[in-house]
Amino acid sequence: MTVDPVAAGGFAAAAPTYSRIRPTYARAAVGRIVEVARSTPAGRDAEVLDVAAGTGILTGQLARAGLRCTAVEPLAEMAAQLRRSLPAVPCVGGVAEALPVRRGSFDLVTVAQAFHWFDPPAALAEIRRVLRPGGQLVLAWNVRDASVGWVADLDDLVEHHSGGRPYSQHDERRWARVVESAGGFGDLVEERFDNPVSTTVDGVLDRVRSISFVAVLPPERQAALLEEAARLLRDAHGLEGTFDYPHHTVLDRCAPLDP
What we know:
Blueprint: H1 5-21, H2 27-38, E1 47-51, H3 57-64, E2 68-72, H4 76-85, E3 91-92, E4 106-112, H5 120-130, E5 131-144, H6 149-162, H7 175-182, E6 189-194, E7 197-199, H8 201-209, H9 212-215, H10 219-236, E8 243-245, E9 247-254
Parallel strand pairs: 1-2, 1-4, 2-3, 4-5
Antiparallel strand pairs: 5-9, 6-9, 7-8
Helix pairs in contact: 1-4, 1-8, 5-7, 6-10, 8-10
């Protein structure tokens, strides 16, 4: 299995920006993941596999919360950022559809902001393979609140300039149905946590730069997009100084069915 070329090119190009600017997950959501890990038969000795860990944003939060984590990341540029910031966390190369770990070796698998890039049946079969009895899967998402006018307008602008997203957003797919159709897992339970992110106009523009399909745009198209985005934020919506970028952290949790 290979990584989607848009993801591979975009995230490789934007890895340093991604590491610096992408938001962490809501503290309450991280606490909930810790509870889920410790509710498995391993308890406080639970081992977590963070798949498509990227630069290690969720990995680091879980490790700092006291969980024993291993990261899997296919892109060398992203993994380099993770190893730099989390030198004590093991990080191995690999894709979700062919995880480079032994059968039944983890109690919890997490996937943060990446499941929409996977081949769901193949990835879910691999996740089920590596989970121990009583283990669980948690999908974590930082979701922008598009009910806020400037957020919706910015999303529309980015998609217009870039030719559209190569994937579905979290709220555009029924992940419960995706998991159910793949088989092997029980019902998906969703939980939502407020996660406002303090930022500036320049911070929002950096977030745009870190989007995979924006990072692969030709320089002149990317520059035009960022210039128009700055006008939208400053002139059309009057944003200045420090303000909240409204987000929710959404957790989708399920457990494998008995063999």
